[in-house]
């Protein structure tokens, strides 16, 4: 997605060979017009898949997921990372290890928002090692629903996540794929178009 790539080049900051800061439009301040375009891009990629629900994870997955939900005309459920006062019963959970943060956390979604008839699109802001997406897919499977696809806003293709998710046999689409952050510079993957 060219608009997203230009935004990353213009407003992203490379913090290290592994980490890209995009607080100006995705992870802290949010650019609504860009998010709408992101939602449209996901809707056009997954529009023919019969999606009935979108699942994401708080907090930075919510903005792109809501816009995709708007464009696909389906509800959006976000997994919680912290315990909620009201969300206590009937929880489906998964344990997610973050290689970036070196922390283990439990993510949860209420079983009442996922049914075995659902055909689910997973959306997340970043794909690093793929652990968050795998946790979401585990929850979708626990509900007896189908994981129909995974939509990622920014993929760091030099990390393991893409390989992990491709191994699941689920369609993965990333709007920007980063080949390298070396030398303080964002280099996008050169994608061969057929
Ligand atoms: P994984 O799910 O792909 O395995 O990712 P990992 O555990 O390594 O990442 C943990 C958190 O760090 C996630 O956000 C993820 O989006 C974020 N992250 C990973 N790499 C980058 C990066 O290069 N830049 C930025 N900006 N974020 C990155 P989180 O802690 O869940 O945050 P939030 O969703 O609450 O904002």
Structural commentary:
The chain is α/β, with parallel strands linked by helices and 194 residues long. The chain has a single domain (34-178), classed as Rossmann fold. Helices cover 28% and strands 31% of the residues. It has five helices and ten strands, in the order αββαβαββββαβαββ. The chain has helices at 2-11, 32-46, 62-72, 131-142, 161-166, and strands at residues 13-14, 20-21, 53-57, 76-79, 91-98, 103-110, 119-127, 146-156, 172-180, 187-188. A six-stranded mixed β-sheet has the order 4-3-7-8-9-10, with helices on both faces. Strands 1-2 form a two-stranded antiparallel ribbon. The chain has a two-stranded antiparallel sheet with strand order 5-6. α4 links the parallel β7 and β8. α2 packs across α3 (62-72). The protein is globular, with a radius of gyration of 16 Å. It starts with a helix and ends in a 6-residue tail after the last strand. The model has no long low-confidence stretch (mean pLDDT 95). Bound molecules: guanosine-5',3'-tetraphosphate.
- Taking pLDDT < 50 over at least 5 consecutive residues as the criterion, the unreliable ranges are none
Gross morphology is globular
Largest sheet: 6 strands, mixed
Bound molecules: guanosine-5',3'-tetraphosphate
Roughly how many Å is the radius of gyration? 16 Å
| Approximate helicity band | 25-40%
CATH architecture: 3-Layer(aba) Sandwich
Mean pLDDT: 95
Q: Treating each run of at least 4 consecutive H or I residues as one helix, how many helices?
A: 5
Spatial strand sequence of the major β-sheet: 4-3-7-8-9-10
CATH class call: Alpha Beta
CATH topology description: Rossmann fold
Class by alpha and beta content: alpha/beta
What is the string of SSEs from the N terminus onward?
HEEHEHEEEEHEHEE
Total separate domains: 1
Binding site for 5-phospho-alpha-D-ribose 1-diphosphate: 128-132
InterPro entries: PRTase-like, PRTase_dom, Pur/Pyrimidine_PRTase, Xanthine_PRibTrfase
Catalytic activity: XMP + diphosphate = xanthine + 5-phospho-alpha-D-ribose 1-diphosphate
Function: Converts the preformed base xanthine, a product of nucleic acid breakdown, to xanthosine 5'-monophosphate (XMP), so it can be reused for RNA or DNA synthesis.
């Amino acid at each position: 997605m060219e608009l997203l790539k230009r935004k990353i080049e213009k407003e992203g900051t490379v913090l290290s060979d592994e980490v890209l800061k995009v607080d100006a439009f995705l992870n802290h301040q949010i650019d609504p017009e860009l998010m709408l375009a992101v939602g449209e891009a996901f809707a056009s990629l997954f529009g023919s898949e019969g999606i009935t629900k979108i699942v994401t994870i708080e907090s930075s997955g919510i903005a792109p997921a809501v816009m995709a939900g708007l464009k696909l005309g389906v509800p959006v459920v976000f997994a919680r990372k912290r315990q909620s006062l009201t969300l206590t019963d009937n929880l489906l959970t998964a344990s997610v290890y973050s290689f970036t943060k070196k922390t283990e956390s439990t993510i949860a979604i209420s079983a009442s928002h996922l049914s075995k008839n659902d055909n689910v699109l997973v959306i997340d802001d970043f794909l690093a090692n793929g652990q968050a997406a795998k946790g979401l897919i585990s929850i979708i499977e626990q509900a007896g629903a189908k994981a129909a696809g995974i939509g990622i806003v920014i993929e760091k293709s030099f990390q393991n996540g893409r390989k992990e998710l491709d191994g699941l046999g689920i369609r993965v689409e990333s709007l920007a794929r980063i080949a390298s952050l070396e030398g303080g510079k964002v280099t996008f993957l050169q994608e061969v178009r057929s």
